[in-house]
Amino acid sequence: QVQLVESGGGLVQAGGSLRLSCVASGSILRYSSMGWYRQAPGKQRELVATFTRGARGGSTNYADSVKGRFAISTDNAKNTVYLQMNNLKPEDTAVYYCNVKFLGSGYWGQGTLVTVSS
Distance between CA atoms of 16 and 114, rounded to whole angstroms? Predict the structure, then answer.
């Protein structure tokens, strides 16, 4: 069973930074892809950033709205996936969810709330 625990959310002013962490219950080397999604009030959940393993290490993908501001990274030794968020904007306010794909199934964390004030 896969368990994911996110942390690092909070209240920040526009232009500030936060780093989200997602700790997995086992080795993240098992997962074919890892990513962050977010859901703002009244909106559908959307992709923020993903890392997909490949023959040459892997590839990242970002939503256009966060390119150049957010960065996804992993620490295999700590079984952790990070999302570094810089130059935050009020429209980044949402609950952020960690997601991993393992043996064809997707797993979600409980989410962490990010609030950006103007």
Answer: 12
Q: Which residues contact 12 (CB under 8 A, 6 or more apart)?
A: 18, 88, 114, 115, 116, 117
What is residue 100's predicted lDDT score, i.e. its pLDDT? 95
Buried b (16+ CB within 10 A) or exposed e, 38-75: beeeeeeeeebbbbebeeeeeeeebeeebeeebbbebe
- Taken in order 29, 52, 23, 103, the sign of the CA dihedral is negative
What average pLDDT is seen over the chain?
95
- pLDDT classification of 58: cutoffs 50, 70, 90: confident
Instruction: Report, in this order, helix, strand and coil percent for the chain, each rounded to 5.
Output: 10, 55, 40
